[in-house]
Every structure is written in C-alpha cells, then in structure tokens.
Amino acid sequence: MKFSIDRRYLQDKLSTAARAVSPFSPLPALSGILIDVREDRIVFTGSDSNVAIQTAITPGEMNRLQIESTGSVCVESKYILDIVRKLDCDTVGMELMDYTLVRLTTENGTFNINSSSADEYPFIDFSRPQGHFVLSPDEFRQIVSSTAFACSDKDSRPVLSGVNFRIAGNELHCSGTDTYRLARKTLQLNQDQTFDITISARTLNEVMKSLSDSDSIDIFADRRKIQFVFGKTIIQSRLLDGTFPPVDRIIPTEFVSRLTVDTQELFRAIDRTNFMKNDNVHLIKLDCSEQAVRIKVRAAEIGNSDERLKNASWTGEPMSVTLNGSYVLDALKALKGEQTEFAFSGQLKPIRIMDTKDASTLMVVVPVRSFD
Amino acid sequence: MKFSIDRRYLQDKLSTAARAVSPFSPLPALSGILIDVREDRIVFTGSDSNVAIQTAITPGEMNRLQIESTGSVCVESKYILDIVRKLDCDTVGMELMDYTLVRLTTENGTFNINSSSADEYPFIDFSRPQGHFVLSPDEFRQIVSSTAFACSDKDSRPVLSGVNFRIAGNELHCSGTDTYRLARKTLQLNQDQTFDITISARTLNEVMKSLSDSDSIDIFADRRKIQFVFGKTIIQSRLLDGTFPPVDRIIPTEFVSRLTVDTQELFRAIDRTNFMKNDNVHLIKLDCSEQAVRIKVRAAEIGNSDERLKNASWTGEPMSVTLNGSYVLDALKALKGEQTEFAFSGQLKPIRIMDTKDASTLMVVVPVRSFD
C-alpha cells in the first residue's frame, strides 16, 4: 500500500470517516479508520458498530492522488487525524512499511505510526437496502432541526430515542416524541412510497454534520438498516427496534381558544426566568385573557416573576395553563417563525404549537397540573 | 434601598464583581454579590475569600442612575446576573422590598429574588496598603502572558503557584517557575522602589480579564495583600506566603552553542508530534549540528518521527538534547517573536530561550536525561 495525495483532501476524507468513530467503542479495532487502497480509489471506513461511515476518493486533478500500490491497514483515528491536520506540507505520502507500520512522508520528515492489520477490522456489510427515496440537504436539515430535539434521551424505550419517518403515498411525516411532547415535520415527496422506520437521533445529527450543500441525499432503507448516500460517502445505521407510538392520535384538531405571540418576545420572556426552577424543572404559568397575556413563574426558594407580553393576543375564555418552560423554548427555537400560535382544546389538554405562516411543522406539548 | 439604572451599566458592574465569586466558596454568603446603595454611589462587592473585587458607579448622563433610597443587600450572583443579562428593557429598577426580597422592575414585569441580608456578608478590609507602583495595561498583560503559564499547578509549594514581582531600583523582575522551567519578564519603572512579593497566578489572570484599555493600573501592596486599582474598580488579593526560590542563580550566562529557529516552524513541528507520548509526557530530541537541525520523537507504543527544520541554524559542536515538548511549546507561545534563540551551556545544563529581538523576556528550560 502506497500513495500520495493533497493533504487537505486526505484530512477531509479522514475527518468524514472519523465522525463515526467513538472513543468508547466496544471493539478496540473500531477506534481506528480502515484505509483500503484499491487500484482506482481509496476507501476510508469508520464505525462505532451502530453507525458506519464509508467514503472514497478517486484520482483527480485537484486532489493529486497517485496510487503506487494497493493494500489496506487500520490506523488509530485520533493519531492520524491529529498529524494530518497539523502537517505543513501540500502533498503527503502514505505507505505501509510492514504489516502494521504506517509511514507518512513529507518534504522534510517521516512519521511512523504503529497501526493494526486490516484483518482485525470487523466486516461491515455496506450492501444497499431496497427501499429508496430522495431528500434535498435543506429538507433533511429542516427535518432534523425540527424533530430530533424532542426525542427521548432515556434508554427505557429505545424507539423513542429516534425520529419516526412514515411515508404514505407521497407524504413524509417525521415525528419525534418523549411522550411529554411531540415534534412533527411533514414534507411532500416526488414519488409514492410506503415506509415506517425509526432512525436514531444521533445518526440523523451525524448525517447533518457530514452533509455538504451541493448534494442531494439518496436514502435507502429496509426493516433493519438505513443508508444515506451523498457524493462518495455512505452513512449507514441500524434502525431502532420497536413500534413507534401512534402519535397522530394525540395531535388535537378541535380548539376552544388560541394564543398568538411574537416568537422572540415569548422566547426571551421564558428564558429570563429560567433560573427559577423547582426541583430542577422550570414551570411557567401562562395567564391568558383578551385583556392581557402574562407569564408567571414561582420557585419557592428562589423567587417569582410576573411579566406581561406586549405583542400577544388571545381569543376565547380566560385560561391559566402551566407548562414546562424548556419544552416551550425548544418548540419556539425549532419553529423559528416571526409569530407562533398556541391552540388550546381545553384545560389540561395537549396544546398544538405552530408557526402562523407554516403548517408543515407542528409541536404538541402536554400541560402540567399545577396546584397554586 | 431603591434605584433605577441603564441595564447595560448594571450588567457591567455586576459582571465585574461576579468575577471574584466562586461556586465553591467556603461561606454561603460569598456566592452572592453585595450591593451597597449609598447617597452618591452604588458599591458592588464579590469575593471568594482569597480574591475580592469592589467596583462602584456614580450617577452620570450615560448610566441614567437615579438613587431614591440607600440600603444594602446580598443577591445570589448567578441569579441576578442571569436575569439582568436577559432583560429586554433599557432601564431597570431595583428595590429591597423587605430585609431580603429584591425586586427588579421593568416596563412590563416584576421579578422578585429571594436574597440575604447584607449583615451576613463577611467584612472585607479594603484599606489601602502603603507600597505603590504603576503599570500600563499593556505592560501588565505582557507580564502575565509571559510568566503565569510557568507557575506550578501543584499545591505542594504554594509560593510556586504565583508570579514573583521583585523590584530593585527601577527594575521590575517578574518570575514564574515550577522548578523545571522558569519564565521571566523584566521591565523598567519610572521610580525607584523595593518590593519582593508573590502574587497568585489566578489573581493575575482575573485582573487581566477585568482590565479595560484606557486605564493605567495603580498597584498597592504590603507584605500581606495587594490591590490593583483602575477606574472605579479594586481587585484585592492575599499575597502568597513563603520565600520565592532564588531563580537568578539558574539563569545561565555563559554559552558554548546557540540554536536559532523560526518560531512558528519549530512550534508547529513540535505540536504535530504531540500525540507521541510516553507515560503522558511528550519528549522531543533536538539533534543539532551545523549541517542540520532535526526533531526526533519516539513513543514506544505509538510510533516515531524524524523531521528536519528548514529555517534553523546551529553554531557550536554537534549536540543532542532531550526536552519536554510542552515546556518548549509554552515558551515559544509566550515569546511570540519571529525568531527564537536557544542558548546552551553544555549537555544537560539549563537552556536559555529568548526572542532574538527582545531581551526583556527569557525562558529557562531544564533538559531531560534520555537513555536512547
């Protein structure tokens, strides 16, 4: 195995593969990146046994890749990335000296890194699942930023730690929930499909970090695994087992009152009372009437507050509702619009939160019973 | 106690006082900021019992401070800072409602924070020590950035965790050492003085963060404490007990050989081998002759490297010397010059490291015995 390449391209490919590498990997070999030099390309693979990333580079004018001989090796991810990032040269040579010694060569120096044989790297099946749909990077980012935050971070029900992608006809519904709140993004696809899969939020965030703007994303999935393919990179992950809860049922559809707010004003008003927590939970009370909308917070040991929203309007009977402040902040952050509508079905019923101008994203938050 | 003030000025004063507040304070009252409203000014005090900061504000056109009634209270530092930072208003009112309830008032809201009585705040003696000298903010920054990093971070000899300021005549010598290396900055003062005090590196870094560009710093000290006074702010700290070691003796003055390097080139060459550590120590070997200067690193389990410096010159007999790489990196970072000179007195003797164009800063690093 021997090749030379533009340093920045090598760094880019190693960084992409390294995204899947975890320092807490169960298998020691997985702390490395598998570098497989073939006749016409170099393939880089990184994995933490749940998520695997494979990316390739072929000789081109810009990357100045020259392959002298084939072969493969597994190099410790943090060592190789650190040195390739810090080298001062334009072109770097890489060579396997014996079974496990990798030599990097620059104009002025040589760097030998003890590595391990490619045989020790576990086999990862990158065969392509059958189901297929396409998203633009922008659509994908919208989905992740408006749903992944609502997933559960507890291990008790693994399926809730992911976003459910359900396609029926040409409609894609993406839902994240931890049972106290729901975040949903709906998109139209170009072709009809049937899918019902749940993808770990961690995988989705990894894919988002690896995306470049120019690519469309081909998504291949079956019941076991999913592949995101863009450019010369494949990110593959197991799907989460278990049945995703039937979240459609909790989305309220009939309303008795509505609150419209300036998104930024409400966000900042809630955020500045964030230190008034009871048992580490930030509860806010919305006191709504047609005359005024007030936010009241009371934390026994810390203090209390009462603030009137300047730009808010309420239609319906007066109502007081207590909510988890961080859920509302998360929802407002994800909606991003100028104005947000909270639609109420009645005391203690789930509340639907939406941008007033964009019906494709909706949040549902369940109120908290309050005793004051 | 009642006043109103421009929000940004209040935030600025609270942040300054809060710099001395530590969440790990031995006294619960010290997690607060003492706000003392007098007829003509408000005085803010924060302390962690070692370092204390006092800053004041008097009514002015810009800060719109209006004092309605005097009084004092101790408010939890993190709560008051958090809310004042996040308020949307220009002017904020603050009022003590009874002994311990502090009310902030804005156009649309009120925020009550449970606080504690000013009586619970410990007495801090801000009386002025007799000795006095003056530094410009730039001189002060130079001293801290070129000496504090070399102080010891171990508790075994407290005096080594500070920078020694020794004035004899009109020369100020500032020295930091952990016994393996020394960093020294020398400055000329305007007047003659005699001082020999050691100031904790933590205090110096705090003062550096609080400085604004326009002020000169008046430094008052006796054998027990030091005060840095600039604008309306006093930062006061105990001095470190113990005799600072006689570091002058280890600064070599006669040399048999000299190495001149491009500072950045050497820094980057050492930095990129940083992952090759033996028992978590990064040892580098400089192989010097008139023909070539090479850096060699060998870490049994990780690998080895050999790189030739392009822009380096050596005068003297060929020599190999092993150094702690992080000490050299620290020294080069502090020297900042384009070219750096390493002056050698002989094998295993302390090495003097200086910017080729600035004799006011010098570093001494002791070589490591190496067995290969």
From TrEMBL, chains A, B:
<dbReference type="InterPro" id="IPR001001">
    <property type="entry name" value="DNA_polIII_beta"/>
</dbReference>
<dbReference type="Pfam" id="PF02768">
    <property type="entry name" value="DNA_pol3_beta_3"/>
</dbReference>
<dbReference type="InterPro" id="IPR022635">
    <property type="entry name" value="DNA_polIII_beta_C"/>
</dbReference>
<comment type="function">
    <text>Confers DNA tethering and processivity to DNA polymerases and other proteins. Acts as a clamp, forming a ring around DNA (a reaction catalyzed by the clamp-loading complex) which diffuses in an ATP-independent manner freely and bidirectionally along dsDNA. Initially characterized for its ability to contact the catalytic subunit of DNA polymerase III (Pol III), a complex, multichain enzyme responsible for most of the replicative synthesis in bacteria; Pol III exhibits 3'-5' exonuclease proofreading activity.</text>
</comment>
<keyword id="KW-0239">DNA-directed DNA polymerase</keyword>
<keyword id="KW-0548">Nucleotidyltransferase</keyword>
<dbReference type="GO" id="GO:0008408">
    <property type="term" value="F:3'-5' exonuclease activity"/>
</dbReference>
<dbReference type="Pfam" id="PF02767">
    <property type="entry name" value="DNA_pol3_beta_2"/>
</dbReference>
<comment type="subunit">
    <text>Forms a ring-shaped head-to-tail homodimer around DNA.</text>
</comment>
<protein>
    <recommendedName>
        <fullName>Beta sliding clamp</fullName>
    </recommendedName>
</protein>
<dbReference type="Pfam" id="PF00712">
    <property type="entry name" value="DNA_pol3_beta"/>
</dbReference>
<comment type="similarity">
    <text>Belongs to the beta sliding clamp family.</text>
</comment>
<feature type="domain" description="DNA polymerase III beta sliding clamp N-terminal">
    <location>
        <begin position="1"/>
        <end position="124"/>
    </location>
</feature>
<dbReference type="GO" id="GO:0003887">
    <property type="term" value="F:DNA-directed DNA polymerase activity"/>
</dbReference>
<dbReference type="GO" id="GO:0005737">
    <property type="term" value="C:cytoplasm"/>
</dbReference>
<keyword id="KW-0238">DNA-binding</keyword>
<keyword id="KW-0808">Transferase</keyword>
<keyword id="KW-0235">DNA replication</keyword>
<feature type="domain" description="DNA polymerase III beta sliding clamp C-terminal">
    <location>
        <begin position="249"/>
        <end position="369"/>
    </location>
</feature>
<keyword id="KW-0963">Cytoplasm</keyword>
<feature type="domain" description="DNA polymerase III beta sliding clamp central">
    <location>
        <begin position="135"/>
        <end position="245"/>
    </location>
</feature>
<dbReference type="InterPro" id="IPR022637">
    <property type="entry name" value="DNA_polIII_beta_cen"/>
</dbReference>
<dbReference type="GO" id="GO:0009360">
    <property type="term" value="C:DNA polymerase III complex"/>
</dbReference>
<dbReference type="InterPro" id="IPR022634">
    <property type="entry name" value="DNA_polIII_beta_N"/>
</dbReference>
<dbReference type="InterPro" id="IPR046938">
    <property type="entry name" value="DNA_clamp_sf"/>
</dbReference>
<dbReference type="GO" id="GO:0003677">
    <property type="term" value="F:DNA binding"/>
</dbReference>
<dbReference type="GO" id="GO:0006271">
    <property type="term" value="P:DNA strand elongation involved in DNA replication"/>
</dbReference>
